[in-house]
Protein: Recombination protein RecR
Amino acid sequence: MAENHSLELLVQALRRLPGVGVKSAQRMAFHLLQHDREGALHLAQALQHACAEVKHCTLCHTFTEDEICPTCRDVRRDRSQLCVVENPADQSALERTGAYKGLYFVLMGKLSPLDGVGPRDIGLQKLFDRIDTLVDGAREVREVILATNFTAEGETTAHVIAQALKARGVNVTRLARGVPVGSELEYVDLGTIAHALVDRR
Amino acid sequence: MAENHSLELLVQALRRLPGVGVKSAQRMAFHLLQHDREGALHLAQALQHACAEVKHCTLCHTFTEDEICPTCRDVRRDRSQLCVVENPADQSALERTGAYKGLYFVLMGKLSPLDGVGPRDIGLQKLFDRIDTLVDGAREVREVILATNFTAEGETTAHVIAQALKARGVNVTRLARGVPVGSELEYVDLGTIAHALVDRR
Ligand SMILES: [Zn+2]
Ligand SMILES: [Zn+2]
Structure:
């Protein structure tokens, strides 16, 4: 395959996907070219379209195709509560419980000092600005619920945010430890997440 | 994420990759959009380019960008030997040994009756036509080496090809089964040892 330039480039490009090694990439390239070229072209279009259309919500920072995402625009939601999650999959898990009616802030990451990921990398200032925004002269957000994952990095992230917000006099709660320690929200059953919401401290 | 059309379409498109479930697809889409849009656009181009450029070698059926692949064009190779493999990765493994100097035929699949994959699906007729090609009034291929995998499906494929070729009076051999180099007998499975005994030289 060494002389097969396009195929080699495709294998290399597929390796940039998370969790895909050289064997998987070869298997994927082989499968697409042999059995599913329509799927390959479909994927190419989906990649280009998403890169062009998907941006971040001005208010909650999650992925959206609009200036402000549908959740933040929803007038039925309680604007005094702001739930902080690591990523959109965690937000989806919380939404599926049906137990939360406030707004979200999606960090799109977590603090990870060992990997050199600091407050600036996950845009914590954006979160603080969001909380400090005044509506009719007062803070709209009255409670911040920290729903980062119950991993070492998620706990660190929650701790740092909690310290910064307490200094601001904002009411900060954390999901209850009904969620098994060491696990990631998107893999936890919905009932557990719902209880953890109700028991938040 | 339900209202996020481009993102949803990207997740669905990624799921067409072999071995990628909905969780992996979400993780990939998230990673690309958050951390590597350049990689996403690069992958899109690589997919389109490979689909446009990669075709099958007229002689050996492997992936190539030319009418006839570099291996089949190589005048230093022994044209009287034809090694039959399941896919390009198997061909690469044989090439890396440096022990084979003949030509190849790449099935791009294997017989799998249980999955409904029959002789037509892997183009066996193309292999037989290749072998029956006359050069100066005689068959150029004098030995066919069956190097399909030593799995149930690979063995079935080898068996079917061997039967068809013996009826044509072509000399057919099979890679030897035996104890892997560097292994100790007590850790080798009994079926392998039994075959190594039968195939002893
Ligand atoms: Zn939003
Ligand atoms: Zn060829």
